[in-house]
Structure formats: structure tokens, C-alpha cells
Amino acid sequence: MLHQPNDQIPVHNPATSPQIRRAPGIRLTPVESALLRRAFAHSQALFVEREFRSGYSGALVLLVSVDAGLAPVVVKMAASPDLQREYDAYHRFVLPSAPQNTAHLQGAPLLDPAHDLGILIYTFAGGDPRRPSSNLRDYYDAQGGDAAGALLNRIFRAYGRHWWAINRPHKFVLGEYYDHLLPVHLELSLPAAKTASQNRAPQYILTAGEVSTVDLRDLIEGDVVRLRGFRVAKIKRDEGSLTLSCDAPAGEASPPLRLRVLNAPLDLWRVGEQVDTMDATVVQRGSRC
Questions:
Q1: What confidence tens digit (pLDDT) does each residue in 139-179 have?
Q2: What is the SS3 string spanning the chain?
Q3: pLDDT of res. 86
Q4: Which of 4-18, 48-62, 244-258 has the highest mean pLDDT?
Q5: pTM here?
């Protein structure tokens, strides 16, 4: 449902509606003019200085001066659902980290349900009153891509450091998101390697929830390990292998540990079951351990 709080919608009173004057060549439909008057119902006069037509969304963007001595604002008119999405995205992605010296929204969308039209008002950042204002598309059409790129670099040099000083990027460990797409951390085999007369005693004990990829770095081919508390994540009958998994230690930013066990009696386990104890021999360690 479109957000339309009552305190954002001025009551339209024809007797007090602001007078609208326009720069030569700018045309407004009666519906657009009426919506503009509603948005500035408490003002006395509006002067529409420039018109910027959006090439992709079809929105109408105006540079408007309100009364005498006040800073100009940017007014955007478009379909009501489009403006509501823009308003919601602004509050979700832009407002929390935007520097104070950039353009900001002024209130929620003012909507005209009868004509499926809405209006958003932004503060106007920058501008030289001695020179005409333009939008990036017009500048690109007139000056070309190299000049437009140089202009953006100038903007980023001026505003970028303020933006990143406020912004707090989310920190994450790449492996937590993509490790499951890579080969397993450790490959083992059953039964455990034998000496001349008996099974070798486990050299390492790996306990689910306590062991990390760092603990696997000292393992070499032929080592015997005892696994405790791992769960069965996958069964591949064509290979005769089990994939065992366990979560990283509490508070550690690591992906779940994944081990593949070859030559395993697959009928003993099902996916999701926990393996209390298993002794196996190291065949190969993953390259990232």
C-alpha cells in the first residue's frame, strides 16, 4: 500500500494557492500544476527554472524556486508506485550514510490517486546562480563521455571522503558465503590405516563445534584422526562416500567444516544423523586449510 500520511498532504485552498511562473519553454499540464500547488500550499509564489525529462522512467524533474530568498528545490513527478519505491529505497539505502551536504528528501510522497501521479521534493545541492543548471544526461549529450566521467570524478573527490567517513560497510568473511561451493576441507578414508598387528591409535581428535580449519593445517597424509559429533551432510552412493559437516566454533567467523569420508558403509547412516565417533585416515587436505 502506498504511504500517504495526512501530515504530509497540505489542504488545497485555491484562495491561498501559490502563483506559478515558468521559464520560457516549460509546459505543465493542469494536473501537474495542481499537484505542484498542493505540495507548496503554504507558499506564495513558485518559479519553475528548469525542466529535466528523464529518458528511462519518464519522470518530470523540475528545478523550482520557492518564494523570495529561499534555496531552490528539486521536484520530481512520476507514477505513484515508482515514487513510493524511490522513497522507501532512499530511507533504506541512502539516508543512513549520506553526508549532510548532499541532496535530501523533504517528506513523504504527495500522491494524486485519481491521476496515478505523485510528487517528491529534494533539496538542491550545488549550483552556480550565474550559470544555468543542467542534469547529467544533458551534459553527457553535449560534452561526451570523457567530460562526463571527469565531472563525476570531481564530484566523488569532493563528496566521497564525507560519504565514507559516515558509511559503515558490513564486514563479512568471504568463506562464510562461498565456501560451500569449493571442495571439502579434508578427505579421509575408512578403515583407519593398520600397523602390522593392530589399528593405529588416533593421533588427533576432531570434535564438532570445537575444531576449525586452522586445526587441520598440521595434518598430513596417513595421519589417523578421530571424529566426534559430526553430522552427515551428504551421501554419494556412486562414490561410496559420506560428507560430514560441523559448525565452526562459537563466535568464529568461519564456514562450516566439511569432510569427505571414502570407503564408508553407507547403509549405517542417513543424511542429518550425527556420527558419535569415527576413526579415519587422512587422504588429502584442502588447499585452503
A1: 888 899 999 999 889 888 877 776 666 666 666 777 777 88
A2: CCCCCHHHCCCCCCCCCCEEEECCCCCCCHHHHHHHHHHCCCCCEEEEEEEEECCCCCCEEEEEEECCCCCCEEEEEECHHHHHHHHHHHHHHHCCCCCCCCCCECCCCEEEHHHCEEEEEEECCCCCCCCCCCCHHHHHHHHCHHHHHHHHHHHHHHHHHHHHHHCCCCCCCHHHHHHHHCCCCEEEECCCCECCCCECCCCEEEECCCCCHHHHCCCCCCCEEEEEEEEEEEEECCCCEEEEEECCCCCCCCCCEEEEEECCCHHHCCCCCEEEEEEEEEEEECCCC
A3: 92
A4: 244-258
A5: 0.49
